Amino acid sequence: MRWFLVGAALVAAGCSSKKSSDGLPPAQEWSQNSQGAMVQGPNPNALPPPAPPPGMGGAKVGNPHGGVQNDPHAGLGIPPAGSGGRDPHANLGIDPHGGGGGTDVTQLGLPPPDPNRKIDPTRYVKGVIKIHMKAAGRAKVGMPIFIVVKRADASGQPTGTALAVDKVTWNNADLAFELTEAQAMVAGTELTGDVVVTARYDQDSDALTKEAGDIVGTARVTLPAQNVQIWLDTIL
Predict the structure, then answer these.
(1) 62-66, 108-112, 182-186: the lowest-pLDDT one
(2) Residues with Cβ within 8 Å of residue 140, at least 6 apart in sequence
(3) The model's pTM
(4) Which of 44, 156, 211, 229 has a 20 to 30 Å separation from 220 between CA atoms?
């Protein structure tokens, strides 16, 4: 009987030892197969981690102009700034070394305004504003007429911001006007080139608004220009 109990104890100890050594493997040794069942070992259906595009391995995020390792154009065939290659920002007025600022207008063929430049008296547009017969009787004496000079585009239409502006008062007769660089919107702006001069009889005396009943006339000229006639002939 004693030997039987000893033997049983040894068998139990052996079973206990086997269970402890055959317990569940660590979680990282399990994976889910394509049917959703948990299996031991790596998932044979798992896709390999994506490889970075050619030439972009190890790329770092940071200053886009901070060197080769931080180059956002890596692998795209564009040399990084400062490498002596083609600058992808060329002719856009952008400093590749981080100089900041807006577009360099000199790159666009336009001289920057110089507020210290003296007004050139030979740059002007002058003439007379007339009212067309179809608008006669609509304009009241004492109301303002705003005159605006803008660059002319290829089709002859005004474009961009105003180069010069002025305000005159309608007197129910031919109205003389003259704009020089003294009326420039930005000090130092050169009043030159192909422009469109617009005159608008304004009922609410607000240069920034237009409303039905305002009367508009335009003339395209090359500055300097004189004896310009602007007919108020379009009723809004």
Answers:
(1) 62-66
(2) 170
(3) 0.53
(4) 211
